[in-house]
Each structure stands twice: as structure tokens, then as C-alpha cells.
Design a protein that fits this description.
four-stranded antiparallel β-sheet, elongated, alpha/beta, 3 domains, eight-stranded mixed β-sheet, 22 helices, 12 strands
Length: 646
């Protein structure tokens, strides 16, 4: 069978067996499968009541396809009910998988049964292809939990990284009291099941005389109780690292419920699996996409994802969920469900009150948790921006990608397609931040974006005046802020074109960038020129033309006749002689002719009414560009030149 290239971040309308068989071998890092349990559940296009042998043969086929599509270091998680847990475990091992963990998912709101105990758990098998080499991120902080030293005792000796979970005891062994609260088990002094209840047990006769006790029952003494009503009553059990996991089932009234699928997995449960058994940007596959929760969680955690489903309706709903999900979004549900609900017998008003302790821990500090969530969101979004840059930079620098409108549009589309949270301005700012932090160094810059000073000479004044005008009007605090925001950048383009028309938005923007980056060097030489030539500047600028002398056509003629095509400097003044803008050019005639039309424009009318231009020639062979301009700025302090502080 011809293999097809793996398409990421999609749900395919296809039977998972044929779909996985068409994928390249070893293309996937993690598979989570929650197949039909064969218990008669009503799906829209699947019959969940097959003959047992038929179901097992079908299971063998799709499990074999999972094995084929996984990388050698990949993991396979299987969620299954009691009816076929043993059989599917054996089939998976016969296929070649090694079982690392047999996790029990214990949930509340279980399915009530008339003739047997209420169903309140499912089986989660963790399989790997290679028993010695596989992905399990035990050292990642996000996969560790607070130890008893941290959470209970606030012990300074505690490992700040927490610990991995251990085995879980729900009913304690003989000789130890059940763990009703956080802490160590204590030896008991009474038998677990006394022959007769003692008064302290809270046991009451069922009689009319004490019927009021039935309305407000009390719990048995913790040393006698060998059962618990609710899992939060034994919060020291069911820790995140144990192989019995407590997560509430996604019931119909839960906010997390997608609303169209009756067998929806909790996001926090899937988050634990995906974080532990895959790295960011690796591929997570769900053969039975259903409500698309696996894919939604994978996207939130910065993984690539692929799903299969045979129901067009489920696929439509799943894609809608994914479209409303962004990389780095918080997982729904409580990461510590035992701590999110009051214990039995605890008043709601008391729940959540902090116990007095010697010092606070970050595990119970809401502000610390929020900071962690925000940090994770920023980190995953930054990774996505980095990836989008890699997909679209075409060998150019980050500056070019932001400043060039056409390239920036491609970059923004890539960020959207990756499902990143934020907007174009946010993504551009993050890209500049990554560049400054050196996190784009892995991408080779093979193409030069720079425009020569000679090329930029005719429109440099437009770039500088437009930028300075926007800064003065507080429409941005810096060049980066203006060009990162597409709306502000577009306004800059319009303003620059009004001052010196005829050039592209990229040229205007790049001109402003060149000026900003050159200012520090130019100011040093400009200071030297000012100290030695400052008193002679007035004589250098002795020639003058005024746009009030004629209309724009006549003004062009005057410039043609009176301004030399040589390197020089110029100063634009208002009719009162106040300096508006100082510039230098390698070709004065070309530069002033490019600006001549704007001297009669609305922009200059708003700035000064009419303007006069003083100009003169200078020798700039051994000076850095803009050195003479910096000297003029030092002398006359025109208000439309950048001051270099932005």
C-alpha cells in the first residue's frame, strides 16, 4: 500500500485502520485510543454490540496499525472498560507492546447499576514499543507533584521539584487508620470493625425518637471507618503519580462537556498522559477522535495532532472545538480534583480556607498558580511563533519578516494556522523578543534585506518624519511597536507616502529602521562636526528656496535650476524661521525634488502653512551616513527628526 505523507493538525473522515495503514511507519510519537467498549453504547454510525470474536479480531487489527505507525520510542495508551480489558492487554502484548503501567481511572458520577456495584472506573494501559527506550518525562516539573513535606509539613528540607507519584492504597492495610486527611498513617488503638459500635462512632438507631439524626448524619470515627464516601475525603491518596487516578467523569452538567459526545474524557487526564509521554511539537494521534478532546489537549500543550473518525457529525463538532482552541490555553477541569471540592461533612464556607502554617507554599498559592499558567501560555506561544518564523522567513531576518507587509502576512497566517493565542501585533512582538534573546539562531539567514543608503536617499526624510510624527502623537512608543501593529504600520505607510510619494511600504519602513539603527553612530560624529563646524553651519545653509514663491510646478523648476546634484545638507523651516526638519543627502537635487510635491501638501500645511528650505553642499566622504544631519539636529533642534531616545 502506498504511504501518504502525514498531514498534521486535522481530523480525517476515515476508518482508523485504513487511515493508519496509509501513514508512514514510525510517524507518530504518542497514540491515545479510547475505542468503543462493545457494551451497546449508541453511536450515530457505529454498532457497539459485536460478537465477541468479531470485536477482538477488529481490535487486533487497529492495535497492529497503532504499532506500525508509532516511532520506536513511542507510547500507546489504551482506555478500556472491564469487559475486554484483559483481552485487549494480551492482544497488545502479542502485537509487540510492553506494558509499563496499568492505571485505574477512578471517577465520580459513575454509571449506576441495579444488579452489581456501580461502575466508577476505567482501565488505562500504558504500552511502549521498546521496553528500554521510550519517552517518559519524569524530570519535567509539570509532571511532578508536591511531596508530603511540601504540601503538609512545609518542611524546608523538601525537594523543591516535588516527586513522582507512588502506588495508591484506597483501603489501608490492617493496623493502620485510613487517611482521612493529608498526613502520615498512624497506628490504631482499636480494631477496624468493633463488635459493637461505640458512641463516638456517630452510629444512630433508626427510630422516630432520633429521626433528626438521619437528616444530619455524622461520619464514623476515622479509626473505625474502612470506607470513604467521596475521594476528596482521602486527599492524600490518588496523587498524580500513582497508578490509580481520580478525575471526575465529564458529566452532562459540567462546563467542560462538549455537548455532543457521551463518552468524553477529562482534559486533565489526557493532559497528564500527553505531558508525560511526548515532547512539545511531537505528534499525538487519536484513532477514535470522537469529541476531539485528545486533539484539543494536544493543541493546548503545543503538540501536533491527527485524528480519525467515521462520523461526519463528530468531525464537524471536533473541528469547531479545535478552531476555538489556542496553543497554551489552560486545560479545563481541576489539575488537583481532590483539592477542588469540600470533604464530606465540611461546610462549604470552610472549604478553601488556608490552614495556619509556618510558611506559605506555592502549591496552594493562587497567584503562583496563575503565574505558572501564564508562563506556560507564553512559552508555548513563543514556540509557535518560532516555528511560524521557520516556515515563512525564506532565509530573511526577523526584521524583514515584520517590516515587509507581504512577508508579514505569510507569517501571520502561519501563526493562525498553528492555532496560537493572540493577534498579529502580539506575534510580531514575540518574534522580535525571540530575536533579541538569540532564540532564532538556529535559522540560517542566507538572504540580505538591506537597501543601500543611495537607494533610500530620496525617501529617508519621509520615513523619519512619518515615524517621529506618530511618536509625538503618542500613537506608539517605539518603531518596533508601530511596525508590529499592522494598523499602525499601515498609518505610517500612508503618512510617509504623503510626504514623499512614489515608494513601497517596505521601502518606507526599512528607511525608518536604517535611520533608527544609525543614530547612535551618527550622533558621535555629529557631535565632532558641531564642535568644529557648528559656528559655520549658517554659512553652509545660505542658499534658500521657498514653496510660497510659486505653485508646485514652478517650485520644481526652481529646484532644478538652483539646487546642485551633489552631497549636501538642508533645513526645512516654517515661515517664522523655526526649524522643522534637518536632512542630508548624497544628491540634494534628487532628494529635494522627491519632496517638492509634499511642500504644498496637506501635511506641511498642517505643520507650518508654508515652508522655506535652506541648503548647502558638504563633503561627506569620510563620515558615516547621517553625521551631518546629526550636527544640524544638535544646532537647530528641529521637531520632526528622531531624537534617538525611542
Amino acid at each position: 500500500m502506498e504511504k501518504t505523507e502525514l498531514a498534521f493538525n486535522t481530523i480525517k473522515h476515515q476508518d482508523c485502520i485504513s487511515g493508519m495503514q496509509e501513514l508512514p511507519e514510525g510517524a507518530v510519537d504518542l497514540v491515545f485510543a479510547d475505542p468503543p467498549f462493545n457494551i451497546g453504547y449508541k453511536y450515530d454510525v457505529y454498532e457497539d454490540e459485536l460478537e465477541s470474536e468479531h470485536y477482538l479480531n477488529w481490535s487486533r487489527q487497529w492495535i497492529s496499525a497503532v504499532y506500525q505507525t508509532l516511532k520506536p520510542t513511542g507510547s500507546f495508551w489504551l482506555a478500556i472498560g472491564d469487559e475486554y480489558a484483559a483481552e485487549l492487554k494480551i492482544i497488545s502484548q502479542q502485537t509487540g507492546f510492553h506494558c509499563r503501567s496499568w492505571v485505574i481511572w477512578y471517577y465520580t458520577f459513575g454509571v449506576n447499576c441495579k444488579q452489581k456495584f456501580t461502575r466508577s472506573h476505567a482501565h488505562l494501559f500504558h504500552f511502549v514499543k521498546d521496553s528500554k527506550q521510550f519517552t517518559f518525562r519524569a524530570d519535567a516539573l509539570e509532571n511532578r507533584i508536591p511531596s508530603a513535606r511540601q504540601l503538609v509539613y512545609n518542611d524546608k528540607r523538601a525537594n523543591p521539584k516535588g516527586r513522582l507519584p507512588d502506588d495508591t492504597w484506597i483501603i489501608p492495610p490492617a493496623g493502620f487508620a485510613p487517611l482521612m486527611h493529608s498526613g502520615e498513617p498512624q497506628p490504631i488503638q482499636k480494631p477496624l470493625f468493633p463488635a459493637e459500635p461505640e458512641p463516638s462512632s456517630g452510629t444512630a438507631d433508626v427510630s422516630p425518637d432520633n429521626s433528626d439524626l438521619l437528616e444530619k448524619p455524622t461520619l464514623p470515627d476515622s479509626q473505625q471507618q474502612s470506607w470513604v464516601l467521596r475521594p476528596q475525603d482521602i486527599e492524600s491518596c490518588f496523587t498524580a503519580s500513582e497508578d490509580t487516578w481520580y478525575f471526575p467523569r465529564v458529566a452532562g452538567t459540567f462546563k467542560e462537556r462538549a455537548g455532543f459526545h457521551g463518552c468524553q474524557m477529562p482534559e486533565q487526564l489526557l493532559g497528564r498522559i500527553i505531558r508525560s509521554c511526548s515532547e512539545p511539537d511531537e505528534v499525538v494521534l487519536d484513532p477514535f477522535s470522537g469529541s476531539a478532546t485528545t486533539l484539543v489537549v494536544a493543541k493546548k500543550l503545543g503538540r501536533k495532532y491527527v485524528g480519525f473518525d467515521i462520523s461526519e457529525e463528530y468531525i464537524q463538532y471536533g473541528k469547531e472545538r479545535l478552531a476555538n482552541t489556542h496553543v497554551g490555553d489552560r486545560l479545563n477541569g481541576s489539575a488537583e480534583p481532590l483539592m477542588s471540592a469540600p470533604k464530606t461533612g465540611e461546610r462549604p464556607a470552610d472549604h478553601g480556607k488556608k490552614k495556619k502554617s509556618g510558611r506559605k507554599t506555592s502549591w496552594n498559592n493562587p497567584a503562583s498558580k496563575e503565574a505558572v499558567y501564564a508562563e506556560v501560555q507564553l512559552e508555548l506561544t513563543s514556540r509557535g511563533v518560532q516555528k511560524a518564523f521557520g516556515l515563512t522567513h525564506q532565509g530573511y531576518s526577523a526584521d524583514r519578516l515584520v517590516i515587509d507587509p507581504e512577508m508579514n502576512a505569510l507569517f501571520i497566517d502561519a501563526c493562525r494556522n498553528l492555532g496560537l493565542a493572540g493577534d498579529p501585533c502580539t506575534w510580531n512582538i514575540l518574534l522580535f523578543r525571540l530575536r533579541k534573546e538569540g532564540k532564532l539562531s538556529e535559522f540560517a539567514i542566507t538572504r540580505n534585506s538591506d537597501l543601500s543608503w543611495e537607494h533610500c536617499d530620496p525617501f529617508l526624510s519621509a520615513s523619519e518624519i512619518a515615524l517621529q510624527s506618530m511618536l509625538m502623537q503618542e500613537e506608539g512608543e517605539s518603531l518596533d511597536e508601530i511596525f508590529c501593529d499592522p494598523l499602525l504600520a499601515e498609518k505610517f505607510d500612508q503618512l510617509a507616502a504623503e510626504i514623499v510619494p512614489g515608494f513601497s511600504p517596505f521601502e518606507y519602513r526599512w528607511g525608518a529602521l536604517k535611520i533608527r539603527d544609525q543614530l547612535n553612530s551618527a550622533r558621535c560624529q555629529g557631535e565632532m562636526l558641531y564642535n568644529t563646524r557648528g559656528s559655520h553651519l549658517k554659512r553652509l545653509l545660505k542658499k534658500k528656496v521657498s514653496c510660497s514663491q510659486s505653485d508646485s510646478g514652478e517650485f520644481d523648476k526652481i529646484l532644478q535650476e538652483e539646487v546642485p546634484a551633489q552631497p549636501g545638507i538642508y533645513l526645512v523651516n516654517d515661515m517664522d524661521g523655526k526649524a522643522l526638519y534637518a536632512g542630508e543627502s548624497g544628491n540634494l537635487k534628487r532628494c529635494l525634488l522627491a519632496q517638492s510635491g509634499s511642500c504644498h501638501s496637506r501635511y506641511w500645511q498642517e505643520q507650518a502653512g508654508e515652508v522655506n528650505i535652506n541648503f548647502g553642499t558638504v563633503n561627506s566622504d569620510n563620515l558615516t551616513p547621517l553625521a551631518w544631519q546629526a550636527c544640524l539636529v544638535k544646532k537647530y533642534k528641529p521637531r520632526l527628526n528622531l531624537d534617538g531616545t525611542e
